[in-house]
Protein backbone atom coordinates (compact mmCIF):
# COMPACT_ATOMS: atom_id res chain seq x y z
CA UNK A 1 0.00 0.00 0.00
CA UNK A 2 1.05 3.63 0.43
CA UNK A 3 3.70 2.82 3.06
CA UNK A 4 6.02 1.46 0.37
CA UNK A 5 5.24 4.27 -2.06
CA UNK A 6 6.11 6.94 0.52
CA UNK A 7 8.97 4.91 2.09
CA UNK A 8 7.28 4.67 5.49
CA UNK A 9 8.06 1.91 7.98
CA UNK A 10 4.37 1.38 8.82
CA UNK A 11 1.01 3.15 8.70
CA UNK A 12 1.30 6.36 10.73
CA UNK A 13 -2.41 6.96 11.29
CA UNK A 14 -4.28 4.26 13.22
CA UNK A 15 -7.76 4.46 14.72
CA UNK A 16 -6.85 2.25 17.70
CA UNK A 17 -4.91 3.89 20.57
CA UNK A 18 -1.13 3.37 20.51
CA UNK A 19 1.08 4.95 23.17
CA UNK A 20 4.06 4.92 20.78
CA UNK A 21 2.42 7.79 18.90
CA UNK A 22 1.56 9.87 21.98
CA UNK A 23 1.75 13.57 21.16
CA UNK A 24 2.29 16.16 23.87
CA UNK A 25 -0.13 18.91 22.98
CA UNK A 26 -0.81 21.60 25.57
CA UNK A 27 -4.09 19.89 26.50
CA UNK A 28 -2.56 16.43 26.72
CA UNK A 29 0.33 17.70 28.84
CA UNK A 30 -2.10 19.37 31.21
CA UNK A 31 -4.16 16.20 31.66
CA UNK A 32 -1.03 14.09 32.09
CA UNK A 33 0.14 16.49 34.81
CA UNK A 34 -3.21 16.05 36.58
CA UNK A 35 -2.85 12.26 36.41
CA UNK A 36 0.69 12.37 37.78
CA UNK A 37 -0.51 14.65 40.56
CA UNK A 38 -3.22 12.12 41.33
CA UNK A 39 -0.71 9.28 41.55
CA UNK A 40 1.37 11.39 43.93
CA UNK A 41 -1.65 12.11 46.15
CA UNK A 42 -2.52 8.39 46.30
CA UNK A 43 -6.09 8.93 47.47
CA UNK A 44 -9.55 9.84 46.22
CA UNK A 45 -10.57 10.11 42.58
CA UNK A 46 -9.19 11.97 39.60
CA UNK A 47 -11.79 12.64 36.88
CA UNK A 48 -10.78 13.15 33.24
CA UNK A 49 -13.38 13.92 30.58
CA UNK A 50 -13.08 14.58 26.87
CA UNK A 51 -14.97 14.33 23.62
CA UNK A 52 -14.83 11.18 21.50
CA UNK A 53 -11.48 10.70 19.81
CA UNK A 54 -9.50 13.33 21.74
CA UNK A 55 -6.92 10.80 22.98
CA UNK A 56 -8.05 9.83 26.49
CA UNK A 57 -7.28 6.12 26.11
CA UNK A 58 -3.87 6.87 24.58
CA UNK A 59 -3.12 8.97 27.65
CA UNK A 60 -4.09 6.04 29.87
CA UNK A 61 -1.77 3.68 28.01
CA UNK A 62 1.06 6.20 28.28
CA UNK A 63 0.51 6.54 32.03
CA UNK A 64 0.38 2.75 32.49
CA UNK A 65 3.75 2.43 30.76
CA UNK A 66 5.21 5.04 33.11
CA UNK A 67 3.76 3.30 36.18
CA UNK A 68 5.07 -0.09 35.02
CA UNK A 69 8.56 1.26 35.67
CA UNK A 70 7.59 2.31 39.20
CA UNK A 71 7.51 -0.82 41.34
CA UNK A 72 5.66 0.90 44.17
CA UNK A 73 2.44 1.44 42.18
CA UNK A 74 0.14 -1.46 41.24
CA UNK A 75 -2.15 -0.17 38.46
CA UNK A 76 -5.04 -1.92 36.74
CA UNK A 77 -6.98 -0.70 33.71
CA UNK A 78 -10.68 -1.44 33.42
CA UNK A 79 -12.31 -0.69 30.05
CA UNK A 80 -16.02 -0.72 30.83
CA UNK A 81 -19.06 -1.08 28.64
CA UNK A 82 -22.54 -1.05 30.19
CA UNK A 83 -21.86 -2.38 33.69
CA UNK A 84 -24.04 -2.69 36.78
CA UNK A 85 -22.69 -2.85 40.32
CA UNK A 86 -22.90 -6.66 40.57
CA UNK A 87 -20.95 -7.02 37.31
CA UNK A 88 -18.29 -4.50 38.28
CA UNK A 89 -16.78 -6.16 41.35
CA UNK A 90 -15.73 -9.37 39.53
CA UNK A 91 -14.14 -7.23 36.79
CA UNK A 92 -12.18 -5.24 39.37
CA UNK A 93 -11.00 -8.44 41.01
CA UNK A 94 -9.93 -9.87 37.65
CA UNK A 95 -8.13 -6.63 36.72
CA UNK A 96 -5.93 -7.09 39.82
CA UNK A 97 -5.39 -10.78 39.10
CA UNK A 98 -7.66 -12.12 41.83
CA UNK A 99 -9.82 -15.21 41.38
CA UNK A 100 -13.56 -14.58 41.71
CA UNK A 101 -15.34 -17.44 39.97
CA UNK A 102 -18.23 -18.76 42.06
CA UNK A 103 -17.69 -16.24 44.84
CA UNK A 104 -20.40 -14.11 46.37
CA UNK A 105 -20.19 -10.33 46.47
CA UNK A 106 -19.11 -10.44 50.12
CA UNK A 107 -16.38 -12.98 49.34
CA UNK A 108 -15.05 -10.86 46.46
CA UNK A 109 -14.95 -7.80 48.70
CA UNK A 110 -13.08 -9.77 51.34
CA UNK A 111 -10.55 -10.96 48.77
CA UNK A 112 -10.07 -7.41 47.50
CA UNK A 113 -9.55 -6.14 51.05
CA UNK A 114 -6.88 -8.77 51.74
CA UNK A 115 -5.15 -7.89 48.47
CA UNK A 116 -5.14 -4.17 49.29
CA UNK A 117 -3.82 -4.79 52.81
CA UNK A 118 -1.02 -6.99 51.53
CA UNK A 119 0.08 -4.39 48.99
CA UNK A 120 0.05 -1.71 51.70
CA UNK A 121 2.24 -3.85 53.95
CA UNK A 122 4.71 -4.15 51.08
CA UNK A 123 4.78 -0.38 50.74
CA UNK A 124 2.89 -0.38 47.44
CA UNK A 125 0.00 1.79 46.29
CA UNK A 126 -2.95 0.45 44.30
CA UNK A 127 -4.55 2.40 41.47
CA UNK A 128 -7.66 1.49 39.47
CA UNK A 129 -8.16 3.31 36.14
CA UNK A 130 -11.69 3.05 34.78
CA UNK A 131 -12.13 3.98 31.12
CA UNK A 132 -15.48 4.89 29.49
CA UNK A 133 -16.83 5.73 32.94
CA UNK A 134 -19.92 7.39 31.45
CA UNK A 135 -21.26 3.89 30.73
CA UNK A 136 -21.36 2.93 34.41
CA UNK A 137 -24.63 3.00 36.31
CA UNK A 138 -25.05 5.13 39.43
CA UNK A 139 -24.98 1.95 41.51
CA UNK A 140 -21.69 0.85 39.90
CA UNK A 141 -20.10 4.24 40.60
CA UNK A 142 -21.24 4.02 44.19
CA UNK A 143 -19.67 0.55 44.43
CA UNK A 144 -16.36 2.05 43.26
CA UNK A 145 -16.60 4.72 45.92
CA UNK A 146 -17.11 2.11 48.61
CA UNK A 147 -13.92 0.37 47.50
CA UNK A 148 -11.96 3.56 48.25
CA UNK A 149 -13.19 3.35 51.87
CA UNK A 150 -10.61 0.68 52.65
CA UNK A 151 -7.79 2.22 54.63
CA UNK A 152 -5.12 1.69 57.28
CA UNK A 153 -5.30 4.58 59.69
CA UNK A 154 -5.35 7.76 57.58
CA UNK A 155 -3.92 6.00 54.52
CA UNK A 156 -6.30 5.00 51.72
CA UNK A 157 -5.61 1.57 50.22
CA UNK A 158 -7.14 2.23 46.78
CA UNK A 159 -7.20 5.21 44.47
CA UNK A 160 -9.35 5.63 41.35
CA UNK A 161 -9.05 7.46 38.04
CA UNK A 162 -12.38 7.88 36.25
CA UNK A 163 -12.02 8.63 32.54
CA UNK A 164 -15.05 9.26 30.37
CA UNK A 165 -16.74 11.36 27.73
CA UNK A 166 -17.95 14.88 28.37
CA UNK A 167 -21.38 13.77 29.63
CA UNK A 168 -19.72 12.05 32.60
CA UNK A 169 -19.31 15.47 34.23
CA UNK A 170 -23.09 15.83 34.15
CA UNK A 171 -23.56 12.39 35.68
CA UNK A 172 -21.41 13.38 38.65
CA UNK A 173 -23.81 16.23 39.44
CA UNK A 174 -26.61 13.76 40.19
CA UNK A 175 -27.82 13.74 43.79
CA UNK A 176 -27.03 10.07 44.56
CA UNK A 177 -23.36 10.69 43.67
CA UNK A 178 -22.78 13.45 46.22
CA UNK A 179 -20.43 11.29 48.30
CA UNK A 180 -18.44 10.33 45.19
CA UNK A 181 -18.10 14.02 44.21
CA UNK A 182 -16.65 14.74 47.66
CA UNK A 183 -13.91 12.17 46.96
CA UNK A 184 -12.84 13.86 43.69
CA UNK A 185 -9.58 15.68 44.41
CA UNK A 186 -9.09 17.01 40.85
CA UNK A 187 -10.83 16.98 37.49
CA UNK A 188 -9.92 18.19 34.03
CA UNK A 189 -11.25 18.16 30.49
CA UNK A 190 -9.30 17.16 27.38
CA UNK A 191 -10.26 19.26 24.38
CA UNK A 192 -9.22 19.26 20.72
CA UNK A 193 -5.95 20.68 19.40
CA UNK A 194 -5.48 24.04 17.70
CA UNK A 195 -4.23 24.55 14.13
CA UNK A 196 -0.53 24.61 14.95
CA UNK A 197 -0.82 21.54 17.19
CA UNK A 198 -2.69 19.75 14.40
CA UNK A 199 0.23 20.37 12.05
CA UNK A 200 2.74 19.23 14.69
CA UNK A 201 0.61 16.16 15.47
CA UNK A 202 0.55 15.06 11.83
CA UNK A 203 4.29 15.55 11.40
CA UNK A 204 4.95 13.84 14.75
CA UNK A 205 3.15 10.65 13.72
CA UNK A 206 4.74 10.70 10.28
CA UNK A 207 8.18 11.23 11.79
CA UNK A 208 7.83 8.14 13.99
CA UNK A 209 7.44 5.93 10.89
CA UNK A 210 10.36 7.44 8.97
CA UNK A 211 8.73 10.26 7.01
CA UNK A 212 11.20 12.27 4.92
CA UNK A 213 8.90 15.03 3.63
CA UNK A 214 7.32 12.65 1.12
CA UNK A 215 4.56 13.52 0.66
CA UNK A 216 5.01 17.20 1.41
CA UNK A 217 2.05 18.97 3.04
CA UNK A 218 1.29 22.54 2.00
CA UNK A 219 0.28 25.10 4.67
CA UNK A 220 -3.21 25.35 3.18
CA UNK A 221 -3.56 21.55 3.34
CA UNK A 222 -2.93 21.67 7.09
CA UNK A 223 -5.58 24.36 7.40
CA UNK A 224 -8.14 22.29 5.47
CA UNK A 225 -7.36 19.21 7.57
CA UNK A 226 -7.87 21.23 10.73
CA UNK A 227 -11.12 22.75 9.46
CA UNK A 228 -12.52 19.31 8.65
CA UNK A 229 -11.40 17.53 11.85
CA UNK A 230 -11.69 20.38 14.41
CA UNK A 231 -8.33 19.23 15.76
CA UNK A 232 -9.66 15.92 17.10
CA UNK A 233 -6.88 13.29 16.86
CA UNK A 234 -9.04 10.33 15.79
CA UNK A 235 -10.66 12.38 13.02
CA UNK A 236 -7.22 13.55 11.91
CA UNK A 237 -6.01 9.94 11.78
CA UNK A 238 -8.95 8.85 9.68
CA UNK A 239 -8.64 11.75 7.24
CA UNK A 240 -4.86 11.59 6.87
CA UNK A 241 -4.89 7.85 6.32
CA UNK A 242 -7.33 8.35 3.44
CA UNK A 243 -5.29 11.28 2.10
CA UNK A 244 -2.18 9.13 1.89
CA UNK A 245 -4.14 6.34 0.21
CA UNK A 246 -5.57 8.66 -2.44
CA UNK A 247 -2.18 10.32 -2.88
CA UNK A 248 -0.68 6.90 -3.52
CA UNK A 249 -3.40 6.02 -6.05
CA UNK A 250 -2.79 9.30 -7.85
CA UNK A 251 1.00 8.96 -7.51
CA UNK A 252 1.16 12.35 -5.85
CA UNK A 253 4.10 13.45 -3.72
CA UNK A 254 2.36 16.58 -2.44
CA UNK A 255 -0.68 16.97 -0.25
CA UNK A 256 -2.29 20.24 -1.28
CA UNK A 257 -5.64 21.91 -0.77
CA UNK A 258 -7.17 20.22 -3.82
CA UNK A 259 -6.25 16.73 -2.65
CA UNK A 260 -7.60 17.33 0.86
CA UNK A 261 -10.83 18.76 -0.58
CA UNK A 262 -11.37 15.72 -2.82
CA UNK A 263 -10.83 13.33 0.07
CA UNK A 264 -13.13 15.21 2.46
CA UNK A 265 -15.84 15.22 -0.20
CA UNK A 266 -15.46 11.45 -0.58
CA UNK A 267 -15.72 10.95 3.17
CA UNK A 268 -18.83 13.11 3.31
CA UNK A 269 -20.40 11.09 0.51
CA UNK A 270 -19.71 7.82 2.32
CA UNK A 271 -21.83 8.88 5.30
CA UNK A 272 -24.95 10.19 3.62
CA UNK A 273 -26.98 7.70 5.66
CA UNK A 274 -30.15 7.93 3.55
CA UNK A 275 -32.48 4.94 3.23
CA UNK A 276 -31.75 3.16 -0.12
CA UNK A 277 -35.44 3.17 -1.11
CA UNK A 278 -35.65 6.91 -0.48
CA UNK A 279 -32.47 7.43 -2.48
CA UNK A 280 -33.88 5.50 -5.44
CA UNK A 281 -37.10 7.54 -5.38
CA UNK A 282 -35.16 10.79 -5.16
CA UNK A 283 -32.93 9.71 -8.06
CA UNK A 284 -35.97 8.98 -10.26
CA UNK A 285 -37.41 12.38 -9.44
CA UNK A 286 -34.13 14.08 -10.30
CA UNK A 287 -33.84 12.20 -13.60
CA UNK A 288 -37.44 13.11 -14.50
CA UNK A 289 -36.48 16.75 -14.06
CA UNK A 290 -33.67 16.24 -16.55
CA UNK A 291 -30.80 16.41 -14.08
CA UNK A 292 -27.45 14.88 -14.86
CA UNK A 293 -26.15 11.67 -13.29
CA UNK A 294 -23.66 13.69 -11.26
CA UNK A 295 -26.58 15.05 -9.17
CA UNK A 296 -27.83 11.64 -8.06
CA UNK A 297 -27.66 10.76 -4.35
CA UNK A 298 -26.32 7.22 -4.22
CA UNK A 299 -26.00 4.62 -1.45
CA UNK A 300 -22.81 4.94 0.54
CA UNK A 301 -21.51 1.49 -0.43
CA UNK A 302 -20.97 2.55 -4.06
CA UNK A 303 -19.79 6.11 -3.55
CA UNK A 304 -16.17 4.98 -3.39
CA UNK A 305 -16.55 3.17 -6.71
CA UNK A 306 -18.04 6.25 -8.38
CA UNK A 307 -15.29 8.47 -7.00
CA UNK A 308 -12.67 6.12 -8.41
CA UNK A 309 -14.55 5.91 -11.70
CA UNK A 310 -14.55 9.69 -12.00
CA UNK A 311 -10.81 9.80 -11.47
CA UNK A 312 -10.35 7.08 -14.09
CA UNK A 313 -12.49 9.05 -16.56
CA UNK A 314 -10.36 12.13 -15.97
CA UNK A 315 -7.28 10.00 -16.53
CA UNK A 316 -8.80 8.60 -19.73
CA UNK A 317 -9.41 12.13 -21.04
CA UNK A 318 -5.80 13.03 -20.41
CA UNK A 319 -4.66 9.86 -22.19
CA UNK A 320 -6.90 10.67 -25.16
CA UNK A 321 -5.42 14.15 -25.43
CA UNK A 322 -1.90 12.72 -25.27
CA UNK A 323 -2.81 10.13 -27.91
CA UNK A 324 -4.16 12.77 -30.30
CA UNK A 325 -1.07 14.89 -29.83
CA UNK A 326 1.22 11.88 -30.50
CA UNK A 327 -0.74 10.91 -33.64
CA UNK A 328 -0.69 14.50 -34.93
CA UNK A 329 3.06 14.75 -34.43
CA UNK A 330 3.67 11.39 -36.12
CA UNK A 331 5.10 9.81 -32.99
CA UNK A 332 2.33 7.18 -32.92
CA UNK A 333 0.40 5.59 -35.78
CA UNK A 334 -3.39 5.94 -35.56
CA UNK A 335 -4.07 2.18 -35.72
CA UNK A 336 -1.58 1.45 -32.97
CA UNK A 337 -3.07 4.28 -30.90
CA UNK A 338 -6.54 2.70 -31.09
CA UNK A 339 -5.16 -0.68 -30.03
CA UNK A 340 -3.18 0.93 -27.26
CA UNK A 341 -6.24 2.82 -26.03
CA UNK A 342 -8.32 -0.36 -25.98
CA UNK A 343 -5.70 -2.08 -23.84
CA UNK A 344 -5.58 0.91 -21.53
CA UNK A 345 -9.34 0.76 -21.03
CA UNK A 346 -9.10 -2.92 -20.20
CA UNK A 347 -6.43 -2.15 -17.66
CA UNK A 348 -8.55 0.67 -16.21
CA UNK A 349 -11.49 -1.70 -15.81
CA UNK A 350 -9.27 -4.20 -14.03
CA UNK A 351 -7.89 -1.43 -11.85
CA UNK A 352 -11.37 -0.25 -10.90
CA UNK A 353 -12.35 -3.78 -9.84
CA UNK A 354 -9.09 -4.16 -7.94
CA UNK A 355 -9.77 -0.92 -6.06
CA UNK A 356 -13.24 -2.13 -5.09
CA UNK A 357 -11.78 -5.43 -3.87
CA UNK A 358 -9.06 -3.54 -2.02
CA UNK A 359 -11.59 -1.30 -0.29
CA UNK A 360 -13.56 -4.32 0.92
CA UNK A 361 -10.35 -5.97 2.16
CA UNK A 362 -9.29 -2.81 4.00
CA UNK A 363 -12.62 -2.69 5.81
CA UNK A 364 -12.23 -6.31 6.88
CA UNK A 365 -8.65 -5.68 7.99
CA UNK A 366 -9.76 -2.65 10.03
CA UNK A 367 -12.42 -4.76 11.76
CA UNK A 368 -9.88 -7.51 12.39
CA UNK A 369 -7.40 -5.00 13.84
CA UNK A 370 -9.99 -3.66 16.29
CA UNK A 371 -10.92 -7.20 17.32
CA UNK A 372 -7.23 -8.05 17.78
CA UNK A 373 -6.66 -5.06 20.07
CA UNK A 374 -9.63 -6.01 22.23
CA UNK A 375 -8.45 -9.62 22.38
CA UNK A 376 -4.89 -8.59 23.31
CA UNK A 377 -6.22 -6.50 26.18
CA UNK A 378 -8.32 -9.41 27.45
CA UNK A 379 -5.37 -11.80 27.11
CA UNK A 380 -3.14 -9.38 29.02
CA UNK A 381 -5.65 -9.14 31.86
CA UNK A 382 -6.01 -12.91 31.92
CA UNK A 383 -2.22 -13.41 31.99
CA UNK A 384 -1.90 -10.95 34.88
CA UNK A 385 -4.68 -12.80 36.65
CA UNK A 386 -2.98 -16.19 36.16
CA UNK A 387 0.41 -14.90 37.32
CA UNK A 388 -1.05 -13.44 40.47
CA UNK A 389 -3.17 -16.51 41.08
CA UNK A 390 -0.11 -18.74 40.88
CA UNK A 391 1.80 -16.55 43.31
CA UNK A 392 -1.11 -15.94 45.66
CA UNK A 393 -0.19 -16.53 49.28
CA UNK A 394 -2.29 -16.77 52.37
CA UNK A 395 -2.64 -13.37 53.93
CA UNK A 396 -3.27 -12.93 57.63
CA UNK A 397 -6.02 -10.38 58.20
CA UNK A 398 -4.54 -7.15 59.52
CA UNK A 399 -5.90 -3.99 61.00
CA UNK A 400 -7.72 -2.83 57.86
CA UNK A 401 -11.20 -1.56 58.39
CA UNK A 402 -14.16 -0.50 56.28
CA UNK A 403 -15.55 2.93 57.07
Q: Could you explain how this protein is built, in words?
A:
There is one protein chain. This protein has 403 residues and is of the alpha/beta class. Among the domains are: 167 residues, 3-Layer(aba) Sandwich (Rossmann fold); 72 residues. The protein is 59% helix and 11% strand. The strands form 3 sheets. It has a 5-stranded parallel sheet, sandwiched between helices. A 3-stranded antiparallel sheet has the order 5-4-10, with helices on one face. Strands 8-9 form a two-stranded parallel sheet. Helix 4 packs parallel to helix 5 and helix 10 packs parallel to helix 12.
Topology:
Blueprint: H1 2-5, H2 26-41, E1 45-50, H3 56-68, E2 73-79, H4 85-95, H5 105-121, E3 125-131, H6 138-147, E4 150-152, E5 155-156, E6 159-164, H7 167-172, H8 178-182, E7 184-190, H9 195-208, E8 216-217, H10 219-229, H11 233-249, E9 254-255, H12 257-270, H13 276-288, H14 300-328, H15 334-390, E10 401-402
Parallel strand pairs: 1-6, 1-7, 2-3, 3-6, 8-9
Antiparallel strand pairs: 4-5, 4-10
Helix pairs in contact: 4-5, 4-6, 10-11, 10-12, 11-12, 14-15
Amino acid sequence: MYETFYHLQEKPFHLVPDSRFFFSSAGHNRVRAFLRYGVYQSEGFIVVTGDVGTGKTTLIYTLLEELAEQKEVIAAHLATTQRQADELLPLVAMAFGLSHEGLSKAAILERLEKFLLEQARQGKRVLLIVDEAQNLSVEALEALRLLTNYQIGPKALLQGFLVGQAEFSGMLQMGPLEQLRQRVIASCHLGPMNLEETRQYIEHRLGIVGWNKDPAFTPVAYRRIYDYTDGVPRRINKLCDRILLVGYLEESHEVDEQLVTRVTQELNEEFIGTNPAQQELKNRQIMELGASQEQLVLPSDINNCLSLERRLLDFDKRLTSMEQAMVSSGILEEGRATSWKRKMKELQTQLAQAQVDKSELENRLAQAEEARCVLEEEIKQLQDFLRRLQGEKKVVSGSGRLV
